[in-house]
Design goal:
- The complex is a heterodimer of chains A (395) and B (454).
- Chain A contains eight helices and 15 strands.
- Chain A has 395 residues and is an alpha/beta fold.
- Chain A has a six-stranded mixed beta sheet, sandwiched between helices. In chain A, strands 1, 12, 13, 14 and 15 form a five-stranded mixed beta sheet that branches.
- In chain A, a hairpin with a 2-residue loop joins strand 14 (362-372) and strand 15 (375-381).
- In chain A, helix 1 packs antiparallel against helix 2 (26-43) and helix 1 packs parallel to helix 4 (109-128).
- Chain B has 454 residues and is of the alpha/beta class.
- In chain B, strand 5, helix 10 and strand 6 form a beta-alpha-beta unit.
- In chain B, helix 1 packs parallel to helix 9 (202-211) and helix 3 (62-75) packs across helix 4.
- The radius of gyration of chain B is 23 Å and the shape is globular.
- In chain B, 54% of the residues are buried.
- The mean pLDDT of chain B is 93.
- The chains are: A alpha/beta (395), B alpha/beta (454).
- Chains A and B meet through helix 3, strand 1, strand 13 and strand 14 of A and helix 14 of B.
């Protein structure tokens, strides 16, 4: 069997697994993880030495949790892909300042199809309000429960795919807009002289005004820093809207120095005030360019997601746990012991994404999280918040 | 043992400081200074300091016992690390060293007491008297207590009332030192106050600055610059930004009989105050002409750090700091697996207690500290200096291990390059009392001279 046909066969099994409801899937998850690990160990050139150094090979693997995780930052240095250069059709870069080398996640048409098959049903479940998470093709999508027969416009606070071809987030926005949005869904940002995302302020304000006037709900998709830019613009004018019922915000975290940073609870409170939305209309997404699946912190419209009794107390929107779909598992790992932490304890997030077919399935993030049932609460990037000494610290 | 409420820093954490409280405290300090401190002469101050320093070296001294018993919870350092740090500091606090400090800074040691002539003054029939500020504010950063200890000592020598603002979490050991001074001489300690508040709390900062005629500040370049801008122009200001340090090991030294001692000295420098001081090394440069000296050194250093961990464990660190180390280790693991000739790494098992990274790239690397050290091979000192060029303006100490005949040549090259302190490896975080912080005067920054021409 050739490399491509092996990955293709795996992908078929994965798609079937994605479509299944999450009943008794532990053994199937383990089997798929083992199969994919074996393929990646054999075909992702820089991955094999890491597995050998850890003395974990497909033959010796006892549990999928032992699969060596690649630090996300290593995607900046090495090409963690099984795709030959000629096979690569798309590359997603991590966001960040242009001064730093970005992470690179290479795709081909087949792996992008899996990526989309992974992102659509979980987005549908959490944002569109679909009960069945399995639907993925346009034809098989039942009418969205939330919006009836009329699709809302998706207002993406990002540049278009043509302007940002290496952003996995923009690709995702494009994908969900085409799948679930109205025909007049659009991208409402461009690039400034430094290639940073710049909000199309007149465009956004016009669309918000139009929605408020017409009574047609809209879905706003954007990063935290773009929402801060929007809120700053609204505050300056000053301006606020009462968006029609059914309108939603999907916010994905991260600032990376692109705006002032607001605590999440404060950001959400401002969004509610300025856009006239109820708390349950704001959904947070967690994703990264090195992954092919995303986590969400609640079902849009649902009052509250289950959180752990042992969880530390946070402001309400901070205390919602993120959940990945059943084909991507998140472990919270103690940085000291390297073992999974107990319920309610903090550690680094490690992800096992079965949809990461042509790169590596196990990714070690630098994100601190609290283990919370079968989900996690995000605390942010591990960095030395306050220097304890008088020496310069690495950034 | 419970500390009585003598200082603002003794108030419970929920106590709310107000600008008016600070102003009142400063006015009281100044009154006490006039009454108790301004009238004292240098020898009597020296006697008090020396006696207090000797007390701290006694194992049954109550404040020392409290520092070791409760320090780990307050400071994040293990008791052994605190004990070593305190011993190293207070061993320096001798009459001889204090007099050497006065001689270095002022010439004759009684120049703060009476008009007297220095060596050059006698040729010009001139005498001079030094006067310290009426009130000094010290802004100290971090949890390594040496800067605050030293600030208090210098302020007492200049007979100034003092207000020490410690970083949050950095109060415990300086506060104990203050209580010990109170134990030795309550009236002296009545001229010193200590508190802690969040940096950049303008109204509190301003209330303090308004009462001071001298300010010293340690911290990040940005924090020091922010304080400098906030200090009124009439106030003397001495700011000390963040610094880095590194070690240099010559081929001849390491290939000789001293190799084992050099490794032990390097480990001591990494362990001292858990590497958090600005004199702690980030990198050891090892001369290596493809003989594998640097790799061998890194391996032995890892063994030594593992060995020391049992006797002098690193303190507990936050999950965030541990996460930082784990993330950094993970990257080096990938690099080591991919190009083992370029990168190797040694890690404490099942903990983040210590990490040694060997990296062939000679460019200086900032460590994430808490006993995380880089070892880098270089052909010669020139390559090391080129590698460290990015921190040239921020380098404090270079710890040296070299043969006798190499030392002077190396020292000159490091000095011309810009390092402000050279010391034997193993002594990096243990400077003498006379150490010129950042290559500058200590008392000279604070004292105002009155020249008397006759």
């Amino acid at each position: 069997m050739t490399k491509s046909s092996s990955f293709a066969a795996y992908s078929r099994r994965l798609l079937a697994f994605i479509e299944r409801d999450s009943v008794a899937w532990e053994a199937d998850f383990a089997a798929l993880a083992r199969e994919l690990f074996a393929l990646q160990c054999a075909h992702v050139a820089p991955y094999r030495p890491l597995c050998e150094a850890r003395r974990i090979t497909p033959d010796s693997l006892a549990d999928w949790r032992q699969i060596p995780a690649v630090p996300a930052a290593a995607f900046k240095e090495l090409e963690f892909t099984s795709l030959d250069p000629a096979e690569r059709t798309t590359v997603f870069h991590s966001s960040g300042t242009t001064a730093h080398r970005p992470s690179r996640h290479f795709h081909c048409a087949e792996s992008l199809a899996v990526y989309e098959a992974s992102l659509l049903p979980w987005f549908a479940r959490h944002v569109v309000g679909r009960v069945n998470p399995a639907a993925r093709s346009g034809d098989s999508v039942p009418t969205a429960a939330r919006w009836g027969q009329t699709r809302p416009a998706f207002l993406c606070l990002s540049p278009s795919p043509a302007q940002a071809p290496h952003s996995s987030l923009v690709h995702m926005f494009d994908c969900v807009s085409r799948q679930f949005g109205a025909a007049d869904s659009c991208f409402l940002a461009g690039l400034d002289a430094d290639n940073a995302w710049a909000l199309d302020v007149p465009g956004v304000l016009a669309r918000l005004r139009q929605a408020a006037d017409s009574g047609q709900p809209v879905v706003l998709l954007g990063t935290a820093f773009m929402f801060v830019h929007l809120l700053d613009e609204l505050e300056q004018r000053p301006l606020s809207f009462k968006l029609p019922p059914g309108s939603l915000v999907m916010e994905t975290g991260g600032y990376k120095g692109r705006s002032r940073e607001l605590p999440k609870a404060e950001l959400h409170a401002l969004l509610r005030t300025c856009l006239g939305l109820p708390p349950e209309a704001i959904v947070c997404e967690y994703g990264m360019s090195e992954l092919s699946s995303q986590a969400y912190d609640q079902l849009a419209g649902a009052r509250c997601q289950v959180t752990s009794d042992k969880s530390p107390s946070f402001a309400s929107t901070d205390s919602r746990a993120f959940h990945f779909p059943h084909w991507c598992r998140a472990l919270v790992i103690s940085p000291e012991s390297g073992l999974e932490v107990g319920e309610g304890e903090t550690g680094l997030l490690r992800l096992f994404d079965l949809a990461n077919v042509r790169s590596v399935l196990a990714i070690q993030t630098e994100d601190l999280a609290v283990r919370c049932g079968d989900g996690f609460m995000l605390l942010g990037r591990a960095r030395q918040a306050e220097a304890r000494g008088c020496s310069l610290l690495a950034a | 043992m419970t500390l009585p409420n003598y200082f603002l820093a003794d108030l419970p954490p929920e106590a709310h400081l107000t600008p008016a409280m600070l102003t009142d405290a400063c006015l009281a300090l100044k009154r006490n200074r006039t009454q108790y401190l301004a009238v004292r002469d240098t020898p009597s101050i020296l006697r008090t300091l020396v006696r207090t320093g000797e007390d701290w070296l006694c194992e049954d001294y109550p404040y020392r016992k409290m520092a070791l018993a409760e320090g780990p919870a307050h400071t994040g350092f293990s008791a052994q690390t605190i004990a070593t740090g305190l011993d190293n500091f207070f061993r320096q606090l001798t009459g001889e060293n204090l007099e050497a400090l006065l001689a270095q800074e002022l010439g004759p040691s009684h120049r703060l007491d009476a008009f007297c002539a220095g060596n050059s003054d006698s040729r010009t029939r001139r005498t001079a008297l030094g006067t310290g500020p009426e009130m000094i504010g010290h802004i100290t950063a971090g949890c390594v207590p040496n800067a605050a200890f030293m600030a208090i000592i210098l302020g007492l020598l200049t007979r100034s009332a003092q207000f020490i603002k410690c970083s949050r979490g950095g109060t415990f050991l300086p506060r104990l030192f203050l209580h010990s001074l109170y134990g030795s001489e309550p009236k002296l300690a009545a001229c010193i106050e200590m508190a802690s508040w969040r940096g950049g709390t303008n109204e509190l900062d301003q209330a303090l600055f308004a009462q001071c005629d001298g300010i010293t500040a340690t911290g990040s370049d940005e924090a020091v610059e922010a304080i400098r801008r906030a200090v009124p122009p009439r106030v003397r200001f001495a700011g000390y930004g963040h610094q880095v340090s590194f070690g240099y090991i010559s081929r001849e030294a390491y290939s000789g009989w001293r190799a084992k001692k050099i490794v032990a000295a390097a480990a001591a420098d990494v362990i001292a105050w858990d590497q958090l001081g600005c004199l702690s090394p980030h990198v050891f440069y090892v001369e290596d002409n493809s003989l594998g000296f640097a790799l061998q050194f890194a391996d032995q250093l890892a063994q030594e750090l593992a060995h020391r961990e049992t006797a002098a464990p690193r303190g507990a660190i936050s999950t965030e700091a541990a996460g930082h180390i784990a993330a950094r280790r993970a990257i080096y693991e990938v690099r080591a697996a991919h190009a083992p000739e370029q990168t190797r790494h040694w890690c404490s098992p099942d903990s983040t207690a210590w990490t040694v990274v060997y990296e062939a790239d000679p460019r200086f690397a900032l460590s994430c500290l808490n006993r995380f050290i880089y070892v880098k091979p270089v052909l010669d000192v020139g390559e090391a200096l080129r590698g460290a060029d990015t921190v040239r303006d921020h380098t404090s100490t270079v710890g040296l291990a070299a043969q006798e005949h190499e030392l002077e040549g190396l020292a000159k090259q490091f000095a011309r390059w810009g390092a402000t302190r050279l010391c034997p490896l193993g002594q990096m975080q243990n400077p003498p009392l006379t150490w010129r912080h950042d290559g500058r005067l200590l008392l000279g920054e604070l004292v105002r001279w009155t020249d008397w021409e006759q």
